[in-house]
Write a structure and sequence with these properties.
The chain has helices at residues 23-26, 44-57, 119-158, 163-178, 206-210, 227-240, 290-294, 299-302, 304-342, 345-368; strands at 6-9, 12-15, 18-21, 32-37, 62-66, 74-79, 84-88, 102-107, 190-193, 195-198, 201-204, 215-220, 246-249, 257-262, 267-271, 285-289. It has ten helices and 16 strands. The protein is 44% helix and 21% strand. Helix 2 (44-57) runs parallel beside helix 10 (345-368) and helix 4 packs parallel to helix 6 (227-240). The strands form four sheets. The protein has a six-stranded mixed β-sheet, with helices on one face.
Length: 374
């Protein structure tokens, strides 16, 4: 299995269940986490990106956690070998409850010259923050409505589902994937997102995350054909049998699962339907068609008219939600602009140099072997 220099994820999402955070699991087990505090526009994401680049230049593997509002920006990173995380404190809800090593706060707010934020600026920022919260609330409401429409869609297929066959598919897979790899020590899955709803629509890192793996199983099917249930049962079995598993939640409905990666087995199995539809294109790729294996033949045709109408309503609501996220991104940019204008970036540079110095020291310890971070 090849070892790419970086892996890309999301650990928060704008979902039908509201803002959803997976940082507690994603950052679990690290020796140290640097939490960057301060308002938007103070250069936290840029500093995180620069630190990621310096780690990559030093030959380190970096896990990059992208912003769902601006996927080209980073919310956080993990230096894998060092077991060190760096994250924007505004987005990492739940992280302080992790059982782990040291948490250090780096205060970027010290760079903000409050004298340059006049009372009228403060009033405008407060007004914009209210609009931002409202834009997010409307996006979540639209996503939830879309989920309810999706539930209607699923019903047509659930009624045609052979659950005995679906369970047999699951049991066969468990035997196929895990036999001979079991251990006596149960594991705990690591929970992540491979994609997110963004202002430009759905975005995912499936291809990048699965590229190094020897075997990829593309699950095909329809809404309600048991894809998420299959993945949940596989994840539970992996944990029981002591097999390391990365558990990827659906960026639309985090109560559902969309992918599992078993790093030690070099295997991925994932829901390969829209909006993250891919097809086998190399050796080691295979399709698992839940529709063909578990559904009454002709279900698509029997309910074609009803399903077509549901698809249209669903698509319209998803577009509506995306438009609210686009509005949120615009408002967020306006808020940032006020803080950018009031920020002394030489102070930010000092914060970044302090972080770089800390990382260099840890890298030095790792290289000379005085401490073990692996």
């Amino acid at each position: 299995m090849s070892n790419p220099s970086s892996s890309h994820y999301f650990a928060r999402g704008n979902t039908a269940r509201g803002a959803h955070f997976l940082y507690r699991s994603a950052f679990h087990g690290l020796n140290k986490i640097f939490i960057l505090t301060g308002p938007p526009g103070t250069g936290k994401s840029t500093a995180i990106r620069n630190l990621a680049d310096s780690l990559l230049d030093a030959g380190q593997h970096v896990q990059q956690f992208h912003s769902p509002l601006r996927p080209d920006e980073l919310d956080g990173i993990i230096a894998t070998e060092l077991k060190v995380g760096i994250v924007d404190g505004r987005v990492c809800e739940g992280i302080s409850g992790i059982e782990m090593g040291e948490i250090a706060y780096i205060n970027f707010e010290e760079a903000v010259d409050r004298r340059l934020l006049f009372p009228q600026h403060q009033e405008t920022i407060e007004s914009l923050n209210i609009k931002l919260a409202d834009a997010y609330a409307k996006a979540y409401e639209s996503f939830l409505t879309a989920l309810r429409i999706h539930d209607e869609w699923e019903k047509y297929y659930i009624e045609s589902m052979d659950f005995v066959k679906a369970d047999q598919v699951t049991q066969n897979l468990i035997q196929d994937l895990f036999t001979g790899h079991e251990t006596d020590t149960p594991t705990v899955g690591r929970h992540l997102f491979f994609g997110a709803a963004t202002p430009k629509g759905a975005l995912d890192f499936i291809q990048q995350l699965t590229a190094p793996l020897e075997r990829r199983i593309f699950i095909k099917g329809r809404p309600g054909s048991g894809k998420s249930t299959l993945l949940k049962k596989l994840a539970a079995s992996a944990e029981t049998n002591g097999i390391e598993v990365q558990v990827f939640h659906c960026g639309f409905d985090p109560n559902s699962l969309d992918m599992l990666i078993f790093p030690q087995l070099s295997i991925a199995i994932f829901d390969s339907t829209a909006p993250h539809e891919y097809f086998p294109n190399r050796s080691g790729d295979e399709i698992l068609d839940m529709y063909a294996l578990t559904m009454t033949s002709g279900t698509d045709e029997a309910y074609a008219t009803e399903i077509s109408a549901i698809k249209e309503r669903y698509s319209a609501k998803m577009k509506e939600a995306t438009s609210h996220l686009l509005f949120a991104a615009d408002i967020d940019s306006q808020i940032k602009a006020y803080y950018v204008a009031a920020t002394n970036f030489s102070v930010i540079e000092e914060c970044k140099l302090h972080l770089q110095s800390e990382l260099n020291e840890l890298l030095s310890d790792l290289i000379i072997g005085t401490k073990s971070y692996v």
